[in-house]
């Protein structure tokens, strides 16, 4: 027997095999209050709560985007058309706050975007039944403006207010190898920590996903556009894919919440 009585049961610890009626102490993330096992409350993002609150209203799909030169904004507007095409579902457009100063934006020759589309706050995400996030790529990941917006959702994460909400992505890249898939793929981490449900489009666009006769953005992760040097406008095929994604998400959330 080594020093300290390694084989002798500690006086402060129940012997091996003895019944222990004390519940284990939860080991949560620092700053988080663990949910008690007998707590009868449900997460704010649960389908039961959302279903009961939207039975007599249109389901709301928030289309939340950051757009620098208008490519993502163009897709967002076409995506709203797809959402609105599903009976009982409404698409609502929002911009995330811009983090660059007006002087910097002018030096970058950033055009004025649609100022009639309101800027969203993180707290407003709770009102959505589903969210489609759109953003340009920065080295294969989301833009800093969109990342800053996700970073501002810490309060919602702490209370898991977004848990259970379906979400998807659409992107803009400068080149064909610039991150059409990785930009969406790396963004999934944001949804995971919130407990949101990632809804990719897969190959539901049908033959349009296999066309090789023209340049086309988009992937199974979501719609996409190639912006080139910023002067190339989205093609009709790219916009049609964005409309399809809006329609697809609207159908998914309707099936989940009105079943």
TrEMBL record:
**Which InterPro entries does the record associate with it?**
Flavodoxin/NO_synth, Flavoprotein-like_sf, Flavoprotein_WrbA-like
Q: What is its EC number?
A: 1.6.5.2
Question: Which Gene Ontology terms of cellular component type are present?
Answer: membrane
What GO annotations for molecular function exist for this entry? FMN binding; NAD(P)H dehydrogenase (quinone) activity
What cofactor is needed? Answer: FMN
Q: Which reaction does it catalyse?
A: a quinone + NADH + H(+) = a quinol + NAD(+); a quinone + NADPH + H(+) = a quinol + NADP(+)
Q: Which PANTHER family match?
A: FLAVODOXIN-RELATED PROTEIN WRBA-RELATED (PTHR30546), NAD(P)H DEHYDROGENASE (QUINONE) FQR1-LIKE 2-RELATED (PTHR30546:SF3)
Similarity comment: family membership: Belongs to the WrbA family.
Return the protein name.
NAD(P)H dehydrogenase (quinone)
**Per the UniProt entry, what species is this protein from, by scientific name?**
Papaver nudicaule (Iceland poppy)
């Amino acid at each position: 027997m080594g020093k300290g009585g390694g084989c002798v049961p500690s006086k402060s610890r129940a012997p091996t095999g003895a019944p222990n009626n004390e519940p284990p102490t939860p080991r949560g993330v620092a700053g988080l209050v663990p949910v008690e096992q007998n707590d009868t409350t449900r997460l704010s993002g649960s389908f039961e709560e959302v279903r009961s609150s939207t039975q007599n209203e249109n389901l709301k799909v928030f289309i939340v985007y950051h757009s620098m030169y208008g490519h993502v904004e163009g897709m967002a507007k076409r995506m709203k058309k797809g959402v609105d095409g599903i009976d009982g579902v409404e698409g609502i457009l929002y911009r995330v706050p811009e983090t660059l100063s007006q002087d910097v934006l002018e030096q970058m020759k950033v055009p004025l975007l649609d100022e009639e589309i309101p800027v969203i706050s993180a707290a407003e995400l709770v009102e959505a039944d589903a969210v489609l996030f759109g953003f340009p790529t920065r080295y294969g990941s989301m833009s800093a403006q969109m990342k800053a917006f996700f970073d501002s959702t810490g309060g919602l994460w702490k209370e898991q207010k977004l848990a259970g909400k379906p979400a998807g992505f659409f992107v803009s890249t400068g080149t064909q190898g610039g991150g059409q898939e990785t930009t969406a793929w790396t963004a999934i981490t944001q949804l995971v920590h919130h407990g949101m449900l990632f809804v990719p489009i897969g190959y539901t666009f049908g033959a349009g996903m296999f066309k090789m006769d023209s340049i086309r953005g988009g992937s199974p992760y979501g719609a996409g556009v190639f912006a080139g040097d910023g002067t190339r406008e989205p093609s009709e095929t790219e916009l049609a894919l964005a409309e399809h994604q809006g329609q697809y998400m609207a159908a998914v959330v309707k099936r989940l919440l009105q079943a």
